[in-house]
Amino acid sequence: MRKFSVLLMCLVLFGSLLSACGGAPKNSGEGAKGTAGNTSGDSGGNAGAGGEAGDITQRKVTLKIHYPLPDETTLRKQEDDKIARFQAKYPNVTIVKDDWDYDVNEIGAKMASNEAPTFYNTWATEAQLLVERGWVADITDLWNNWEYKDEMNPVLQNQFMVDDKVYGITQNGYVTSTVINKKLLDDKGVPMPAFDWTWDDMYNVAKGTADPKKGISGIAPMGKGNEAGWNWTNFLFEAGGDIQTSEGGKLTAVFNSEAGVKALDFYKKLRWEANAIPQDWALGWGDAISSFKQGRTAMVIAGAFDVIQAALNEGGMKPEDVIAYPMPAAEKGGKHYGILGGNYLVINPNATKDEQEMAFRYITFDYFTDDALKSVEDTIKARKDEGKYYIPTPLEYFSEDSEYAAKVKAIYDKYDNVYKYDPQLFSLLEGKPEAQFGTQDYYATMSNVVQESFSKKGTDSKKQLDTAAKYVQENFFDKAPQQ
Asked: Where are its TM segments located (predicted)?
């Protein structure tokens, strides 16, 4: 879910220097105009003014880059450092900063007016839409010529591969997890569940640790904002359901299925039978994370990094008491599905060939570098000096079996303030992508269903889901672009 990318973005390339963040695409070979005041007017092998044919480093190129928002001061400093290092290597490139943050309601106008950056940030949910609308460049050739393509994390990278073509570059990602406060379980004499756990196990932990009189819940599912629908959708997936199907160019809402009913009924059991959720259940993302770090809930559902970072470095909890689990399977032997999300950088299709290539070089400039390794080690040392922990993200841009991953692990192993995930987590995590159109609209609609389920006892799950599916279908999915 896009709302949860902000904290993850801060850990891109381990806090190093990686940058974050319409009309039919024009063929740059046909004289497409560049973005951000391109001064060369050339593409392909044509020489720009004063340059040499065939050597892009000798031609003037202007990039309008995605730049962090004004309140992201640390990220801006990191980006400025990256710009300086990039221009030292490519003095022929002029950098123009653009802090526009991707918005699905604005991208079409940005492309039509040729005001979009040369590259911009987006999320895993947007691949199909951007490709269909022609708002993202096909970078397959650039990708195939890149020496590190085979070391990238395939789970994440595949989200921006459509019909065997590459349209974006992953920055980082997450699979939604459940994080458990072991101390609360110990205090109540509740045993820690096996990592290969089920809904029944989650129910028993939630019921066993809840202490409403003390204001402690067994689990804090998010109950307001789009995040309420986002949290619930994990259970829809675990029950074997889907959000939508696509046949013959038509999207159909299918979350009002038997699986959907099963998932919603489980939520109601946690609320009305176990009395395990907070009495004030209208928690947003930040509220749920805060409840966990303050020791007021035994379990919370989110990207593991965000929860652990808050618990250890803000809540003062101990690493041995904060355990990341996969989402529970609906039944023994089932899938531990968690929503797969991520952050991506994509290139403007209206940019010239030179601009697209330089944008690709800029995006990947700090990938797989010794500078990035030094940065992560420096960050770990700085955290140690501050008495804080370094929390790796469970899913990085690089493959876990790559040579680079081994170098990163060697650094982690040198320090006792690096949080270590239980290896069992990674053997069971299974990400399932979000819907490729209308995701946020669907989440908002399901949030209303979750709220009704938590506030009114005895609601009819099937009727609730049928009503929600009809609304989503008519107002959003029927308006989707044809496949």
From this structure: none
The CB density around residue 283, as the number of other CB atoms within 10 Å, is 25
Residue type for 80, please? Answer: D
CB 371 within 8 A of CB 360: no
Tell me, yes or no, if the pTM score tops 0.90.
Answer: no
In the chain, where the domains are located: 2-173+342-374, 177-338+435-479
Identical fold for domains 2-173+342-374 and 177-338+435-479, yes or no, is yes
Name every residue whose Cβ is closer than 8 Å to that of residue 72 and which is 6 or more positions away in sequence: none
Fold of domain 2-173+342-374? D-Maltodextrin-Binding Protein; domain 2 (3.40.190)
Up-side HSE of residue 146: CA atoms within 13 Å toward CB?
22
Chain segment 416-452, per-residue pLDDT in tens: 999 999 999 988 999 898 887 788 899 999 999 999 9
CA gyration radius for the chain?
A: 23
pLDDT, tens digit (0-9, with 9 covering 90-100), for 98-143: 999 898 789 999 999 999 999 999 988 788 889 988 999 999 999 9
The CATH class of 177-338+435-479 is: alpha beta
